[in-house]
Amino acid sequence: MKQEKGYKSSIEDASIMRKFTILFLLMSMIPTGVLYFFYMDIEKHGRLQISQSSYNMTLIFIVLGVSVGYLAMRAVLKKIILLVSTSRDVLENVLDPEILKEIDGNTNEITALTKSFSMITQRLEENIRNLELAKRTLHSVLFKVGNGISNMQNIDAFLELIVETVTEALNCRYGVLMLLTDDKKSLEVKTVYGKEYDFTKSANVDIEESSAISELIHTKQPVIIKQDVAELLEKDIHEKLFVPPLLCAPLIINDKVNGVIIISGKKDKELFNKDELSLLTNLAAQTAVAIKNSQLSRDIEKTYFETVSALALAVDAKDKYSRGHLDRVADYSIIIAQRLGLDDDDIRTLRAAARLHDLGKIGIPDNVLCKPGALSDSEWALMRKHPEIGESIIKPVRSLRYLCDIIRHHHEKLDGSGYPDGLKTDAITPLVRITTVADIYDALTTDRSYRQKMTRQKAFSILEDMQSQLDQDIVAVFIEALEESSYQEPS
In this structure, are residues 224 and 245 in contact, taking their beta carbons and an 8 Å threshold? Predict the structure, then answer.
């Protein structure tokens, strides 16, 4: 029984060609046997002698043999037809209707089966190419994002990199990232990529007035939007920015949505697929974490700045002769910067650095810092350490490192006679030169333990006499600005 069952199984599992060969041999045995019988009868009697009953039996065997062969061959062909039908059902999910019509138009099942397998093979090859492309795209995105993280100077630059990278990676024209406002009622546009004209970042999207965005915020689920979403922004703002279809993903942190990222304008005019949606979703999750970390970092750094500012003011207040010095140096530096036409970033830098430029004096003993009269050589050597001490306090905070140059070098002179590094000429940056002029002027026009304050004109004269030490262009601008302004030195 086992051998019989195994034989049957081997026949069923055999290839179509093998089945055909076996069936053909079985079908051939009956007519071959009949012919052999006729031959032997002729050989024995010299002619064909067969009774009616033998003749009838022979015909019955032939008919039965043909019938069995027909049924067996039909069963094999039915499997082929079933295979064609199955392949067509599979193709319905992967091929265009026009291609299916072309296949169905063939009356030859073998030809249809061949074309079906050919189409499936082509689609598999196409899928493999798409997977390779997706792999390269993902690798490119991760590389750019990772490189952006390692070189990121601020969160805005990082977000611009994210939007640009994912927009290009998904073969789209436009990308926009929006963050939730404090009132949680609207989204503020943070960065845009792909616009042909300047985009107003202050533009907001009212969540309740946009059904698409409202659903995205409330469901917290990424979505592919196929229809037009012109209601997102005013026409002059949204034009060409939200071109359907749209790929949208929420920025979620701690199960709360704090923004959205939207990619649109497919260059190949095709719909987004699930893999692209998954890629944007994962990138949105990482971006949300980066934004949250940046916010926490800014809060910490703001607290640190306020703390060291308070320390600087405490040092300023310890010496009755220099109280208010930090604020006055800040005021003078800003007056010079405005007269020179410097931008807002430089002005903010000068203001912050002026508030902290003497921070290092916190490391100077009180008996030296508040000593009445002139300092000894050893005490001066100790006092000259305060720029380096101030820099060492600020330097660990990445966002405050831009102040280190001014804090360390505000006592440098163009001729190299300054400290702590003895810098000369071009090695001293413009913002440091401005702070130096402002610092010296305030020292000249305020009382010191070893001398009385000087008049404005006397101080101007001393600044002008320091030809080799101070930038005279800055000195001239400062004198002109003070003479034209109503600013009054402390009495």
Answer: yes
Model pLDDT for residues 37-86, shown as the tens digit of each residue: 777 777 777 777 677 777 777 777 777 777 777 777 777 777 776 766 67
pTM of the model as a whole: 0.52
Residue 337 one-letter amino acid? A
Strand partners, 203: none
Per-residue 3-state assignment (H helix, E strand, C coil) for the chain:
CHHHHHHHHHHHCCCHHHHHHHHHHHHHHHHHHHHHHHHHHHHHHCCCCCCHHHHHHHHHHHHHHHHHHHHHHHHHHHHHHHHHHHHHHHHCCCCCHHHHHHHHCCCCHHHHHHHHHHHHHHHHHHHHHHHHHHHHHHHHHHHHHHHHHHCCCCHHHHHHHHHHHHHHHCCEEEEEEEEECCCCCEEEEEEEECCCCCCCCCCEEECCCCHHHHHHHHHCCCEEECCCCHHHCCHHHHCCCCCCCEEEEEEEECCEEEEEEEEEEECCCCCCCHHHHHHHHHHHHHHHHHHHHHHHHHHHHHHHHHHHHHHHHHHHHHCCCCCCHHHHHHHHHHHHHHHHCCCHHHHHHHHHHHHHCCHHHHHCCHHHHCCCCCCCHHHHHHHCCHHHHHHHHHCCCHHHHHHHHHHHHCCCCCECCCCCCCCEHHHCCHHHHHHHHHHHHHHHCCCECCECCCCHHHHHHHHHHCCCCCCHHHHHHHHHHHHHCCCCCCC
For residue 73, what are its two tokens? 């061959």
Q: How far apart are CA 433 and CA 473, in angstroms?
A: 10
